[in-house]
Amino acid sequence: MTAARYRDVYIAGPDLVAPVLRGVVPAVQGAPYRISPFFPPAARDVFAEVVQRIGDGVLTGRQTATACWCALVSPPEIVSLIDEVYGKAEEEPPRLSALRRFVAALPRDCTFSLVALAF
């Protein structure tokens, strides 16, 4: 087995993953479709943070495919994760600013899939 060359974190719609995470249907191979910008690199490993939080039960989720972990999250939970991993700086990189704007525009009364994918 070779090490993953890419490890990404992004936000997806919950429609395909929610039944899997709730145990209604068995897991399927593949990852949910991406609706957000990718989470940019940070001093802390964002991928490892998401997988660890799923494993610890901090985020409601599970491994849904060989190298894919998904959690059902609300926009405030996503904001909290971004703040913890990236901190709050006066000058942010453009990719982080774009991600924050995307999350701020999400409807607050919905859940989304937070996806950690390795390939």
3D architecture notes:
The chain has 119 residues and is an alpha+beta fold. The protein has one domain. The protein has helices spanning 18-21, 46-56, 75-86, 94-105; strands at 7-12, 60-65, 68-73, 112-118. α3 (75-86) packs antiparallel against α4 (94-105).
Low-confidence stretches: none
Radius of gyration: 14 Å
Give the terminus-to-terminus CA distance: 12 Å
Report the biggest beta sheet as strand number plus sense, adding barrel if it closes: 4 strands, antiparallel
Structural class: alpha+beta
Rounded average pLDDT = 87
What is the 3D form?
Answer: globular
The helix-strand sequence is EHHEEHHE
Determine the strand fraction and express it as a percent band: 15-25%
Output the number of helix runs: 4
- In total, the number of strands is 4
The order of strands across the largest sheet is 1-4-3-2
* Whole-number tally of structural domains: 1
Helix content: 25-40%
Write the layout of secondary structure elements.
Layout: E1 7-12, H1 18-21, H2 46-56, E2 60-65, E3 68-73, H3 75-86, H4 94-105, E4 112-118
Antiparallel strand pairs: 1-4, 2-3, 3-4
